[in-house]
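cron nightly-structures :: item 1 of 1
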Amino acid sequence: MIYFPALSIFPFLKRGIDEVIELFKKTADNYNKEGSDIDVEVTMSLPSVFTSGESDMVELAKELGKKYLDLDISVKGSPGVTDASNLLRGKDDNFPFMMFGPGETKMAHKTDEYVYKDYYFAFFDIYKELIWGLTK
């Protein structure tokens, strides 16, 4: 079985970023009191992206995943950071957003990241049909 969460809908969690950073700092402080030397440095901080996950775009993407890849695409949250938060400023949770591509989330940003060639080429047709389907 191939794990293929290519359709990923944020959020991973609904805590504010400041709250999460503070939690890391507090945890580091606790370990430092016991002799550890942990320094928390935030090198990138973007707000979470929130969406309902319900839209015609998402449903069409799921249909196309089945049609071209014979996969049942699941809709789920995705951990990590995305620059989509910059594109979605001022949009509400009902604004259609998804991450949908030929890769596997578990491989993203790894040293030996790869994409299956047949998935890569299938997405040419998937994206074309997705665009046509959404412009009707």
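cron nightly-structures :: done
The two ends are 35 Å apart (CA to CA).
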